[in-house]
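Data availability excerpt. The first of two example chains:
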Amino acid sequence: MDNQRLHLDSNHILVFIDSAVENHEDLIKGVVPQAEVIVLTSQQDGVEQITAALQSRDRASSIHIVSHGSLGTLYLGNTQLSLSTLNHYSEHLKTWLTPSLLLYGCNVAVGDVGEEFLNKLHYLTGAAIAASTTPIGSAAFNGNWELDKNLGSVEFHPAFLPSTMASYATVFEQTNPIIVGDKYYFTTYDNTHGTELWTIDPNTGNPVLFADINPGSASSNPSNFTVVGDILYFTADDGYSGTELWKIDANGYPQRVQDINPGYGSSNPSNLIVVDNTLYFTASDGYNTTGLWTIDSYGYAQRIQDSGGLYNPSNLIVLGHSLYFTAFDGMNDNQLWRIIPSIAYPINLSFNYYSGFSNPSNLTVVGDTLYFTATDGYSGTELWRITSYGYPQLVQDINPGNASSNPSNLTVIGNSLYFVANDGDSDTNLWKIDANGYAQLVEVNGGLSNPSNFIVLGEKLYFTASNGTNGNQLWRIDPNSSYPISLNINYYNSSPNPSNFTVVGDTLYFTANDGYTGTELWRIDANGYPQRVQDINPGNASSNPSNLTVVDDVLYFSANDGYNGTELWKIDANGYAQRVEVNGGLSNPSNFIVLGNNLYFTASNGTNGNQLWKIDPNSSYPINLNINYNNSSPNPSNFTVVGDILYFTADDGYSGTELWKIDANGYPQRVQDINPGYGSSNPSNLIVVDNTLYFTASDGYNTTGLWTIDSYGYAQRIQDSGGLYNPSNLIVLGHSLYFTAFDGMNDNQLWRIIPSIAYPINLSFNYYSGFSNPSNLTVVGDTLYFTATDGYSGTELWRITSYGYPQLVQDINPGNASSNPSNLTVIGNSLYFVANDGDSDTNLWKIDANGYAQLVEVNGGLSNPSNFIVLGEKLYFTASNGTNGNQLWRIDPNSSYPISLNINYYNSSPNPSNFTVVGDTLYFTANDGYTGTELWRIDANGYPQRVQDINPGNASSNPSNLTVVDDVLYFSANDGYNGTELWKIDANGYAQQVKDINAGNASSNPSNLTLVDDILYFTANDGYSGNNLWRIEQNSYAKSLEVPGGLDNPSNFTVVGDSLYFTASEGVNGSELWRINSTTNSPFNFNINPSYGSSNPNNFTVLEDVLYFTANDGYSGTELWKVDGNSYPQLVKDINLGSASSNPSNLQVLDNVLYFNADNGINGTQLWRIDPNSGYPNPV
């Protein structure tokens, strides 16, 4: 090293600018005077260019490198400097002698990868280093010029003039970068062209717009880049022909391959996959359902057909020289198929010779073997593989005979396949494929039952399971040992209930309870062991972190520190939990949605009610997106993401509740005032099919209809020739939307919409009356089941075939009688339901592996099953076997045979009731015949366990009013000493009295337990002030809500939004309507009858966030009133004019319409309805 290079020029700044950076000429012109600029050409190794430049120059006071960047990576010339290449370039880097090295690349310092990259670069160069965890560049693109991650003492000599940084019009960030031959393509956004395809000019090294496919500022959104030979295929929307398949042709220009769905409709090509230089993809031509397509030798798109067609292909996967996928052929249900490009036509690998229904799923490649689950009609659903000949082979009949082991959670670690299955002898357990290709049970002492939450991180498998002793625990499998290691973190060897698993970079976060500090946030450290992040709510109280959401490698979540209530938190750059603060706080954040680099959520700042907020990715500071002109709550809800657009409903205080969206700048914009003026269209049932949004709404002129967003972004009502009224039961299956509606001629019918076709298809199949009355729509795998009548066979179970049309499953109650199927419930891939075959009581039925309805039988039968609850892939229900009365039963998805969970020692009915789920635990009350009626729960192995004999001996504590608040169960019970008081289940699973409100053996009789946000309200009598209103905030004690004169006999508790409405008397104004907002906790008396009399509010009924009720204001008699969260009560209409009463009663909501009885004083009592358009009542 020469002496000249050892000289440090304190005034010399070296700025290396990569030529791939957009508008880098503007940056060159805008450097500070003392800076020397060196441009890195895209045709050479950028690291070598920097080294060569430094060899001939004095040691600079600081070196600035301006380039595109990503996580732990700099793109320099035609190479990358990253963690994986640092060793390769180590000799070069040791010659980069400078006190300070500043890296201007987007997101280079993000996460553990970015930090490790900086540490190693610091070690090799010896320089202090500054880099960024955010995009660098224009604030208009969420960029900034702040290098917020530092190693060592960095001397910040600015490289660019302030005017340059302020005027620079993009960021140093690309998306979808891809190299084809000697061409480098990527997508990026600018204000002039939107998101389009760009490339690097080989002559200048500058980024240039390759093609403005959707001309002007609109975006074509190129994506799905796939290279076949020297051709680049991708999808894009040119603004005229919808989203179609494009390619870069031989002349280097973009060209639409074909308008597969002619006109404005989109074929939505997806699942692009290459086999032996042949491109396959799925798309819809607008006439048929989605099919499998390929590019033929002439460059045209061709649909691949079997003799009966191939519909809704999915699970596309390549193995060797073959493409495997699942699809319907028009004759059989879902099958496994194989295509060899040299043969072209599809080969049906069906192996269920009984019904043709093999239902292959969970396709997973391990090395050169394809594994999947399926049934051959003989051995149930088991694990299969593709042999070297390309045909299916049963790996093992794990659950012998026609029973199913139902393998699931197929997960690859190294060259090993792990999965969950049930061999019929025990609970669901963990299995693996051994070196000889056999399925082997993974055993530990006590077993590993009900494994779930599989997460692969750093070649390690993490999951939860129970060993029969310590409840549900976190486990780890290293790829070399394959033996599960228990990561138990509970000091009392109880279940820590690990949940909310979320990966951020190479760190796994989750929530758990160690039995000492309550439920807090944890993470897996670098050695693979659990570590508590922080005791957010100090001591044994719980902060109950939830809504774990990752934005730009930053973890956000909600938690309660015991002082500020439930607020927004994040993990800062040092790994600590930090509360995100704004003036007034952010209470009860929810509806966390990530869109682009932004986090959207709802929360209350204590002033304007529940609002929409956005986290600025640069400052991490929440921005209030309040859209209500009256500074009241707009009640944002129904959040739905379609592509890169967030839709939601809100009320701006001027145009009623309408459909809104987040625009390109990240701010809310009303889509359309569907019901013009102050009226609300009340959009609801938002649902997405193939990137198309559907919803129900009313325009103020017609009844509620089905709407969609067209290609121009406007809301359009979907009509049949006779209209479509009151659509409901919206459900997606494959690429179709199914729903029920009236068409103006027939009663309720089943309809289908395919977005590529657009118009609705009537699936009516009652040719006698046109009234099929479809209901109970339920999806199982790729089949839609529902109940309906065809006019001949009564109300029975139906399904949608592979053609998309209705088919009777079975006439369970033969002839025109009805079996009336109900309680349709899905466990695994099985459908259970209740029906009556006409020969016996109502019984339990299931759909078997061949698609037939089968009676679920036990000795004595199972009559009148009810209380269906799904918990941990098990079905719990109550039924009678004719001997022991009403019992609790369980069905495991693998055995399908009901197991009696009888807990009564005398084989009498334990009368199980009050079923309540808390996290992954089912609580209920029952009588075992020995300890009376007490609180019980289902343990980790699926068996009943008494929580505690609260009232010792054979007396009963009679738990009731079971209510969940932030994963804590509250209830009322009598321990025999303190009377009936309020109790809860503590962090260790024990029953604990909250407070002896009525001291001694008297009872406070807590009742009306009602949850509003995170606050529990209830009524209780302390023995001094009568039956009053009380509240419990999270981790606090019961407190009485004091008002002057007290609150006598609160009742009619009803929650609307974040408010609790009830009736009570404060001793002066009689029985009136009161409201408590969860942010203020101060009861407010509306005093509808101001003349010291009672308005006697009653008949509380909620419709679309509005509370309807009856009341008497002292002038108009007893009439119908309403109130929402932002206003005072209003008289809907004085139906019986003057002081006489119309006495509205029997308030009922049907299809978003309120019906009631009332007497207008002329026509007697009639049926009335609230017109959904005008909001006024009219007789029906």
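And the second chain:
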Amino acid sequence: MSECLIYQLKPGKTVVGRLDSDKPAAILLSGDNILEEHCYFENTDGKVVIHCLPDSMTFLNGKRMAAGQSHKLRTGFRIILGDNHVFRFNNPEEIRKQRDRATAKSHLHLSLSAGDLVDAAAPESSPATRPDSPASSIDADDVDWTFAQREAAFARLGLDPTLDSLPDDDLNKLFEKVTKAKTFRENHLRSRSERPERPESSLSQAMTDDVWSETGRWVVPSEAATDDTSLEAPTTTSHFSPELGSGSGDGSGNGNLKDVQSQLETRLQVINSSEGSKEAEDLKIEKEHMEHQLRLVRTQMKRLIDARSRGEETELDQLGFVEPVIYSARQLRLIRKVLDRWRAHRSFSMAEVVLSNAVSIKEANVISKELGKQVIYNFTISSGGTLAAPSSAVDTIAGLDQFGDVSDPVLRSATQPSVAVKVLDKRHDAIYVWSLDRMQQQLQRMRNLTTYIDRPSYTQHFSSDEPFYDSPPPEYSFIGNALISLAPLSRRLSSTSTVPIFCRYTAEAIGSCRVDIKLVNVVLSPPKHANAANGHGHTISGSSASQIPGVVPPGSKLSFFLTVDTVKGLSHHDFSAVHLQVRLSSFVGPSLAAEEVFPSTAVDLESSSMSELRFRRSFSIVASSKTLVNLRQGYAPIEFFATVTPTYLERMERWDEMREQKHHVPPRSSGSNSPSSSSDNRSILPHMRRSETDFVVEQTHDVVAWVQLCELGPDGQYAPVPVLSQGALDPGSFSLHQGLQRRIVISLSSNSGQQFPWTEFTKVRIGNVRMLDTKGRVHESASKSLVTLPLLKEQRSEFKPDGTGSLFGQALWDSSVHDSLLLNQVTPANQRVLLQLTWAAAVDTCADPVQFSLDLAITMGTRDARPPSKLFNFFGGTKILTKSSSLFRVRLSPPLTRSAKDLWRLDTAEKYVRGEESLGVWKPRGISVVEDYSRLISMEQRAADVQAVRVILTTVPARTVQPDAIGWRAEELVRKSLTLWQRRFGHHGNIILSQEPSEEEPFSSKTFMGSDSLDGLKLASETKIIPRSDSATKKGHLLILTDAGQGIWEKRWFVLKRPHLHMYTRSNELEEIGIVTLTGVNVESDPLKESLLGKPFSFTLFTASNSHAFAAPSFKEKQSWVAKLDPTRLPS
């Protein structure tokens, strides 16, 4: 075959040669620069590879192939042989597969390279057809020739043949991407010049080279070439990824997000390419940081797209997108160091937690005292890390703590000191620690025992002991620890020291022990230039290492022997049996994958002496970079556990009482050297009880919400539609009609009155349409967005004389704006349409409006559909109501105090808890527990540092001083000693914590409440809907005092459903008018109050938020109501 238009490549080898040559060839060509053996094609299993022979002029896609170079051919590749022969390679099987794949996949993610710009310029062309040539004036027969020639010419000049054919928009986008790539390469080269020791990776060089230059040509390696079934060209993520760069139509915010994501992904590839450098650890830190930033960007992109799909306005639209900042490894280390130092100052935040949760600890002790559980709760500080939640390994071995690792995950995962709860379990003779989260869970279970004490059907499902103790309680309790510094070990020094044993609960030394660390050897890692055949590292014995102190090199293996003995101070009066244990993470650091604990043998102090308690074990650890940091800066605790006696628990209880009473002793005046007697008398007088308005504490309010849907009637008035409720647990379904105007009426009521000063509704929204079928399954619809409804100006906010408050508002609702078939069509029988209704109410004491949300159920009927028959009220549990009610619990949390002088305002220790009289002089620990912990940390670390410095100084050789130099250096030595003695190390500023206001702080709240700082003390709200209850404890008629000034009593029907008392107008329970929350309930009844109220058989109900006066029809009914309202009340 010679000089033909089409050449069929048969399986095997096809040689291209010269027409007038004697050498055999399958394809014979003539012309300039055609050799006798020019090149050959190799066809194997449908894959064709071109091989360039020496001295031949062969061009592939405009690039000249080097001698001996081979390349796999794909459909559309252009080949120039010699000066005049231009070919285009086609693979029919590949074209067929591309067409099939293109049908199933419409969007192709192709890397934008020089050879692919033609496809980008003509996206509508078939994958099997060649793109349009720039030389449009030339005949179609000459197109391949002209295109390939121009491609080769432009390549030699460093240009691209398709640039002049691209539209202006594509050229602008391309210019922006090239500019980004050039900027990134300049920044990367600048950072490389600042750190010349980092080698440049081949991948990063390939990514930052100009893709239009000769050296920047993209050549696919043989192992990266795709098979014939792949439609996408082999790509690498770069700045020119069209799926990240094209942001047209998405808005500026979305475009910025995509640009940032593209830059982050590119830098990540640069980091991944340099894993083998000596700064691999720095690169790993930067990689983790950039991956985190990339995840944030992707999350914002997803949130932005979802919000815009729902038609909602996002924060990015309002504030604009803030690009994440990428820090270097050195900057990240500095940031983390500053943050760690800042997080270490936790005294102020822990004091806030202690004061704000004091009332919960008091309530738990009251319940424990009333039920006789023999357990006392109080605050303590849990150290982070290995001492966050220490547990005995002996208990674990015995199977007593098989689930201990997951019983309190919050406490065990803590890395910083945190406030915890100390449990003095006198029933099981144990002491252990709970996190505050677990304490709140246990407290709720304790409340259930008292709330449902008169309902055996409920209490039979509650364990009477589980809320108060650990299950099972530990046999060995953590009593203290000794702390040793690891600094000598990091310097390859053996050490022997006597270390005090500190109690974590009292911050006092309760004993001592001798700790001996003997260095066995250090196996150094072989240097990189060492002979590869020598597989052994250099070993340094313990004696030589002690004589020549030096740091442990990274990668070496450190072996040492740990001995703990000579334990003193632990008395058999306090402890029955004692053992100690050591954790491997104490030496390796928190980076240890799996924790290992090594306990000693337990010693029975009744039959053995303390001298038998000892621990001996050898350790071998690999000194990684993180391990070396822990050895240089860390401490290793030696934990002590014991079976405690009742004497020890009683002393712990007395310690808390003594420490708290000592802390509350009023200080004597020190303003003058000779204070007067009157001044002394005033200083020892107890302070007046402060007003509750002075405190800023967490508040809880119960709010009942009634929702009505009103439709326009023939008389032009809006009337509420009937609500069909099928039981006590069913809030009801609104019966609507097609094509009528509607209004949503929301009424709120609260027993808190002025304590919860709401003013108006600020926003009402409805949406998220769903279908609830007959089997209780919820079917989603396309209408998920929430629509804001216009509010009418007629809103009423009222605070009544009985201490209750109400808020009323209306909103217009046009159901057609949802464009949902579920709302437009008639609802099938026994099915409901669910909608989400949310509203916000402005409250004076809250920083932001309080948010409420609930689900409404409706059934859409025809225009002339009849309302449900009222006969339903007489059959079964079905009722026809005029409104749907829901109960919400609003939790108002105080903000963080801004200064130490306002810390006392968070104190809840004085907040009244019903039954607190049984506690006597007991008080929850205050900020003294934080001060004790700070003092403990300072003492034990200082003691460990002294022992470590003493060991290091003994290895320093003594310097000989000439006798004549002592005289003139004596004064300098004294001056230097005094300077060091007077110098203050550590932090120069200390935060003074106090539970009492300063002397210049007025006790009246007028100045405080009237100051400009009121806005900064607004509360944060959190709302939760309370599930409905279906069983009532008691029902009946009672008289309630609605206006004490006018002496107005009204007869109401009351239904007691713990923990709430529901109030109705009539006994049919169709119209609910109020709910009384029985939190902290206290009922009082005596003849004097009856005569004062002027009603026989009256009693007063006190709750945490209000008080109510009731009158029963008879003495028997009165006694029954009092017993049901307060089951814990002793009969009188």
